[in-house]
């Protein structure tokens, strides 16, 4: 096949992705709301343009070629990027612009009101709309539904996102108050081996509960049907019939503020900078500080050596990590993470420009 000179249209990509996901032209046509013959012709036209076969097909089966698998992966990303660009452009063009922040209910370590109050006091602050979601926050930022999100590393997927650490904390096991382990001062992960732990969306089914909302999980724990290992700050908002017991050898978890990698939004950069500073200056509540000390004391014999960014470290911001257009060297020289992958403890002393 000879490759054509014309560029590939988003409609053609959408057609191909539908066929590649369904592996059936009839189902893909119904999904797209078009007849099957035009869909078949569109795929053939796309193959001619690209100069390669994307699908192996006969009268009964459809299978992806290696080139087809590549286009499926890249095509999904391209379509998502186009959709995100459209959403962000429409929001930017509104007469009254705002920022959209995605957050998980009761999982912000009580930093959300601190951040919002601090940002509202800054010059040229925009209104901040809060959208609550348990497990779609990263996707919301990637596809343009949100400008930024409060997320937890490393348990949540930060691919394609830049982010700043806000608070790193230990983890606790949430148990029913009547549970045999609830009276313990400290637990280990081995103590929970026989307990039913939740599996969140996309987890492999293994007979345990699959959860979509954290509120459902807490109710299930109260019924004695599950336990969960969560950030220590969650204890402050537990219902009266639940307790949180420190887990000495559970890895620390970090609350981060994530935004689209490569963003050049001045408003978003100002919000990130303000949020990082507000988190850095915030102090843990006495109960949380006391619990952290109890964890360190009770688990001293078996607690692993602190990792980078562990324990009570709070936010550190860098010019390289901020949206590129407004980065400045006041924030250089401290830890930066980009696209969900740590890049080391010392950032470049000069801003990163994309």
Automatic annotation (TrEMBL):
Provide the HTH lysR-type domain boundaries. 8-65
Ranges of compositional bias, category Basic and acidic residues: 327-340
Q: Which InterPro entries has this protein been placed in?
A: LysR_HTH_N, LysR_subst-bd, WH-like_DNA-bd_sf, WH_DNA-bd_sf
Q: Which domain of life is it from?
A: Bacteria
Give the Low complexity compositional bias ranges. Answer: 280-318
Question: Where are the coiled-coil regions?
Answer: none
Do the record's keywords include Metal-binding? no
Q: Which GO terms describe its cellular component?
A: protein-DNA complex
Pfam families from the xrefs? Answer: HTH_1, LysR_substrate
Q: What is this protein called?
A: LysR family transcriptional regulator
Give the species this sequence originates from. Microbispora triticiradicis
